[in-house]
Amino acid sequence: MEPNSEGRQRDGQGRHRRPARRRAGLGRDPETDDGGCRARREGTGGAAIPVVVIGKTAVAARLLRYTEKEKAGGTEPRVLYSEGIRCRVPTAEREFAAVRRVHGKQSAKRKVPAKYELPEPGEVATHIRRARPNGRKYWAVAAGSTAATHVRREGDGYVDEIQAVHVIVSFGLDEVNPDDPEQVRRAFEFVTVMMTRLYPGVQMKLVGQADGLGTATLDGSLGRAVFHVHCVQNAVVAERMEVDGQVWEPGRKMSGALTDIARLRERADEFIAQHGAEYGVEQKLPSVAEQTAEKRRTRDRRMATKGEISNHDIIRVAFEASMDDPRSVDLEGFVEVMSEHEVTVNYRVSRAGKPGEKHAVSYRLDDMKAPVRGTTLGDHYAFDSAIQQLEDNASGQERERRPELQRAGAPKPLPVPTAQELADAQAVVERLAREERVAQAEDQAAADFLPAIIEDFDAATEAHRLGDFRELARLANATREKDARQRTRRARATAISSPDGTAQAQPGIAPEPRQPAPAVKPASREQVEAALEEAIAPAKAESDKMIAEYHRNKEAAKAAEREQQTQQAEAAPQTAPERQPLFGVSLADLRMRAQATREAAMNAHKPEEASEGTLETETTVGAAITGVEAPPAAPRLNPHTAAERKRLQRLRAELVEVEDEQSHEGPALGG
């Protein structure tokens, strides 16, 4: 459970949103922004047991935000408690959407449902409204001799699927007094446990509130607010669960027993009967089946609307009066007393003496054409219940009476604290107030410390050491006033220098000091700078010393290196380096080999005289030029070919280039 952001309970001042009845009943969803539907107004107040209402919405995010949105003009916190089931309260909106996306239900659409309307002139009616045994209405095609009354018109287009189911549980003032934090806490805990049990696999967010417009009392004034809990449920099932023997897999949309008004009423009744005593909650209204039976007949509802008493209600009143008669200790006596109230009781046994024997009673007034079954009037008037009540009368025990509509009583009284409890509470409040004031003073001192140092370094540090927050505030305010004056001067200077002579910025306004301070001459900024210089002087001297030592060591290393180079140069021999021929061969050898090559070329016109000597000479010259020994040449069969002549021309060109290079390099080598 998560209390409201201010960590306190409301004081109970508020307005009532809807009345309260002593049962966990359901009503059709009205407007979700109204906080739910209003129950039947009876008496002068609200309900005594939680009233549960249900609704649906296609925009879950809007409903989730509404439950925690503060109302304009409110003087009290709206949210008293909040709780998330399978989600966190701050991130419920995103987590709801994540579950829908995982199961492919985000932004899902559905076809617009059909409508049933009265036929236009010339149209033929085809459908009729029928009712199931449980009272639920549905449309069906008229068959047989039944006359149709409406026509079916198919829906056009698509609309958004339902994203959230909205359940509201409210308590009457006589059950939960909003002025008592303990009662509010227990009520919210009860609703949280109940909704978790009723919807074991549904993602939901619960928010407890105590506001509302209230229910008008008999004198026309607004009633007091009642505590109620908004439960916003994701319409997509988050975890696998089983409800009423039916398994719901993750990703399935909530429907059927999960949203059916009658089934939710019955399941809430069962939970209250089993666990309500643990939270001080009891059931005092008729069961769902009893209320359904009393409202089933159209004639009964019509007569009740006119303020008349129907035949069924007359029989119910006669039944209660007869059961209170001392003679009603067995069935015979009860039948006799009922006849005095002009009600005939018919007792019938089916399958007598056989397995599955059944007993039933029916009731009929003199002016009724047919009797009405006890089960039709309600379980309280059926055979089994009537016999049990007669046996209780015979044994002197209190019989089970017909649950009546409960009128809200006076608000549940608050526990009266003792003098010691009041003293303890006052001490706790004073302690919390002191701690809060100290915390605020420390926070303000931390904010004032830096401006105070700028004003007077020594005074600020001393005040901070001693915890003198007033002195820190005085110094900080002095700095702020100076800054404000500087901003004002800059604004005026900007206004003067602007082309149109108007101010480009509004002049700053000096803030009022937090605490009054005597007029004293503030310390100058030069003193602050001097104090800072004095504080960093030792560190600066040490760094200068380290830098000087580094430069000395660097210069000494350079001097030693220069001296070592000088000594090596003096110790080296003073002999000229021996010149080596270029390409590893002398110029004379190259000239001689070139001459031999020319002679061999001139004698090449004699094919028979071509010998290995010529080839050897050419190979030698090529090796001399390239520095690499050439591979053995293939025998020349015909030296007069064009290819041979071109090769010789290339050799001559290479020799000329070598001679030119030798002539250029000669002076450099001293030749």
UniProtKB/TrEMBL annotation:
Residues 496-505 have a biased composition (Polar residues). Residues 1-14, 26-42, 553-564 have a biased composition (Basic and acidic residues). Residues 15-25 have a biased composition (Basic residues). Residues 1-42, 392-422, 480-529, 553-581 are annotated as: Disordered. Residues 565-580 have a biased composition (Low complexity). This is Relaxase. It comes from Cryobacterium tagatosivorans. The lineage of its organism: Bacteria, Bacillati, Actinomycetota, Actinomycetes, Micrococcales.
